[in-house]
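Researcher: I'd like a structural prediction for the single chain below. Treat it as a standalone chain; there are no partners to consider.
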Amino acid sequence: MLNPHIFRAYDVRGRVGADINPAVFEKIGRAYATLIRRNGGRTIAVGQDNRLSSADLKTAFTSGVTAAGVDVVDLGLVTTPVLYFATAHWRLDGGANITGSHNPVEYNGVKMVHPGAAPLSEDEIQRLRTTIEREEYEHGRGAVEPRSPRADYFDTVTSLVTLHRPLKVVADAGNGVAGLYAPDLLRRLGCEVIELHCESDGSFPNHLPDPEDPVNVVDVQDKVLETGADVGLAWDGDADRVGLIDERGRRHEADLILILLARDLLARRPGSSIVFDVKSSQSLIDDITKHGGVPVMWKTGHSHLKRKMRDDGILLGGEVSGHMFFAENYYGVDDGLLAAAKILDVIARAEGPASSLFDSIPHLHATPELKAPCPDGEKFRLVGELAGALRARYETIEIDGTRVIFPGLGWGLVRASNTNPYLTLRFEATSESAIAEMKRVIYGALRQYPFVTLPVE
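Model: Treating it as a single chain, here is the predicted structure.
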């Protein structure tokens, strides 16, 4: 049976065995190739991360693609951004990477794109499910050709970034596929690289490759302090997200990292728009405006932000989860390695250390993303009802979920995760007591739904 919940807002993802297996991925590959053929395409790139289940899923997905008459350029083990790069740079008709991204080891999935690495829409992903259920496939016999994008990718990134001084960098790949690319790329940029968990191991024996969770960056924090490094970098499992640790061992949220990248862009391109997701800090909005830019708040999700950038001609974007999107002399995609290179460029040109750059940013009190487990079948309905109730009492921004403005305090957000069965909550305010007051209101509203498990305080 095909679990409809694996077809998410911007990718396909689920538990290996329970939701996805090679038979399911053969059908998904065939449905995706059917979409490509009906759009006039004939050749796509296919890659994979290093999860233990990825090789079998990729083999099955590729079989489905070729059975629909589409040729495959087999990239082997790649980061998702390298898959995007190969698709756009080689002007292929699409691309797909088998990856579980930052999720626990029992999960896997596939991220799929159009020509130019443009994301599939939510409707298109749902149409893949319909194609499978109706067995309305194209037919043919595609070929498979192995080809590595590594040299082209490294040449492109190093043409975009030149460091003004050498930096000592701790690179923590979390045993994900970033370890196959990041150390070599950083050395080509002139960095002294201290490798941490860069050995490829899809069981992730040291920590989950997810730098958004502070628990997963403790090792890199310790190593930065131990070695006197200028900065520490960490990536998620498929390296489309990056986390940063300054020389003092402090972890910085991605929306504050985006402030530094936005300042850099606005110094060169005054008046540019910067897009970011609804979970981002008010400090980001204020700083973009202060430096002459146009802040654009948008829906959470890498596909949503990439489409917004393409539709509106925006050159830079980012979200709290660590995705950073680049369209200035690049392809308008999220890339954790390119983001790392650009951040290092900013640090290398600064007069002081990395910490001084972040000290120049007003820091409000903010929670991390808080996850409240909620059944997939209930979460969107709940958020819609909650928005209606809160709208009657407060100003709300309902681009994606509901961001509630509490006058004199700050804001609180409730949205449904597009990738997992939970609600995402975040709060930001002028003080911890203000956060507590906002939590009291929103948690009180959520307690009306007994199937929601509130975050443990």
